[in-house]
Design brief:
three-stranded antiparallel sheet, Outer Surface Protein A, domain 3, elongated, 3 helices, single chain
Length: 178
């Protein structure tokens, strides 16, 4: 049984939902998003609570149930509150700079890395070593954060690099004189 698929979704007062066939469109204070729900899934809206039901217990329907519920919940949360990921830069001389919308990263290479974010993504800095990625699409926020992290992932000996805030990097012992 899908435990995620069974969970009801509470619709906030600030969010309006439109249904047209398989397309669900959510409009809220942060913007507008839409998602296509699988045609087999049944959507019910009662008193501001949305539930998604599956037609059978087949493996395909069970796997799609939780997925479709999560996609709908993400667009509702995105247009109401938005999503954010925080990245931390650790290393001597490693820093980030924001010029306009472009992010300039100094990560120990011979050159600066210039990252141009998508239009719907907002990047800000806390100090010069914490990058905050914000947006209304959960998938795109995660993708942009992963791309920034990929420029210099944390290395296992000193832990230098770009990591998610709170990410634990297991450190290895270096060479010992012998």
């Amino acid at each position: 049984m899908s435990r995620v698929g069974k969970l009801p979704i509470k619709i906030p007062d600030a969010v309006n939902l439109d249904f047209s066939g398989n397309l669900i469109t959510a409009k809220g204070p942060k913007g507008e998003l839409s998602v296509n729900v699988h045609p087999d899934m049944k959507i019910k809206l009662d008193n501001g609570i949305l539930t998604i039901e599956r037609p059978s217990e087949s493996k395909e329907h069970r796997s799609l149930h939780g997925l479709n519920r999560a996609l709908v919940a993400n667009i509702i949360q995105g247009v109401n509150e938005g999503f954010e990921k925080r990245l931390e830069i650790i290393g001597v001389g490693y820093r980030a700079e924001l010029k306009g919308k472009n992010l300039f990263l100094s990560l120990g290479y011979s050159h600066q890395i210039v990252f141009v974010p998508p239009q719907v993504i907002d990047i800000s800095l806390e100090g010069n070593n914490v990058i905050i990625v914000r947006g209304i699409e959960k998938e795109l926020v995660g993708q942009v954060a992963a791309k920034i992290r990929s420029f210099r992932p944390p290395e296992p000996y000193k832990g230098k690099g770009v990591r998610y805030l709170g990410e634990v990097v297991r450190k290895k012992a270096g060479k010992t004189a012998g």
